[in-house]
Amino acid sequence: MGRFWERFRGRNRKAVIAGAVAGCVCILAGGYAGVGYYYSGRFYIGTFINGVSCSNKTAEEAERGLMNNLLNYKLTIRGRGGIEGQITGNQLALSYIDMSQAKEVLWDQKPWAWIFAMMGDRNYHIAFPVDYNEGILDSLLEGMPFMDGKLVTPPADAAIEETDSGFVIRPEEQGNMVRFERLKEAAAAAIRHGETVLDLDKEGLYEAPSVLGSDEQLQSEVRQLNELTRARITYDFTDRQKVVNRGIIRQMLSKDLYGNYFLDKDKAAEWVKQMAYDTDTFGLPRDFTAHDGSTIRLEGGDYGWCIDREKTTEELISAVSAGMNGSLQPSYVYTAMDRSADDIGGTYVEVCISQQRMWFYKDGVELVDTPVVTGDPNKGNATPAGGVWAIDAKINGQILRGQDYAQPVAYWLPFNGNVGIHDASHFRSYFGGNIYLTNGSHGCINTPTDQAEIIFRNVDKGYPVVVYE
Q1: Neighbouring C-beta atoms of residue 347, cutoff 10 Å
Q2: By C-alpha distance, which of 269, 288, 275, 256 is closest to 359?
Q3: Taking the model in full, what pTM does it have?
Q4: What is the CA radius of gyration of the chain?
Q5: Given this model, what pLDDT does residue 207 score?
Q6: Cα separation, 436 vs 15, whole angstroms
Q7: Is residue 34 over pLDDT 70?
Q8: Distance between CA 286 and CA 304 in Å, rounded?
């Protein structure tokens, strides 16, 4: 009997233990299933959607949380120079159009595997379609500090500029002008995707210079310009100068089809033309200060400077091409005695018809003041007046011939065809007064011999003779 009860008690103990284990397993299985059932309609612990915790929430609860969070949304827009602006969901009256993707996240959960899901966080970033007032967005963007016209600087291309030492490349300037249409697109995309920062620089939303300092063509041009403009040429006109410097030469350059610079003859000719316009005096009106200090307006004559434009252009091009550094004289068709603006200078003959008087100055010093007899206007022989003429010749001993005369003279200084200054004491006893109105010359300036000699000895071909009424 004893052995029987011992065997019975051993068997019962095993059954109890087996029953207990089975019970525990059932309880655990039921609990596991219950938790699985719980998470069949709720998000796992540690679930975040767009940064909003959805732990243990139903889809509807999660949607409400997401909607509330949407109004607290902030988009920070960063510009250059530390300038920032912000747009909030509340300002835009943001709202979701469709949040069905949140339910899809829930449906994709595997409730029976919930124990494995507890081992980490689940972060979802979902671009829910949103709705907002586009007009309000435009207005908010326009009001951003980086859109303030007082603070905006447009970009500037790299460019060539002249310095004292040559041509250099002025670097480009980035500025801070925003491409507004592209900004609107980028801001709208950021809002749609729930992004919180929009960096204008990183997104390429600034207007950019189109030419950079590293541009090979620009660098090539600088090298060419420095080579072609190395000359410095001075045209000296006594009281003023015309300087062909680096900047002037650049204006004479053109580009060929390959973008290379060359010295353009037409542009050089244009510059020479302007120099001639500024400095030529031949036959042009001028103001003359008479012996008594009065100002006489002279309109005609053949005295003065006249640049040979074609030859001067050729010489200029050669000098520039050679890189000349120095002075150069223009070539002339006509020349005068003084290269200053008052080209008559200090040595000249002055004749006043109404006073029947002639003066001669040498280097500003009066050497002659004498009465004369000029052409008889009543016989159509009036001496040409109102201009400046150049002495055409200097002849010692000449027979002056006309239709009804042949008159030998010792000192002959023609200045206007057959009209000139000559000695007349050998056939005239008196000079000055009104003699010229009744017994005037054929147009010449009849001069006392001793005075004519003084003038003759001190002038040469090309010196000016001023005649006025």
Answers
A1: 19
A2: 288
A3: 0.65
A4: 53
A5: 95
A6: 169
A7: no
A8: 10
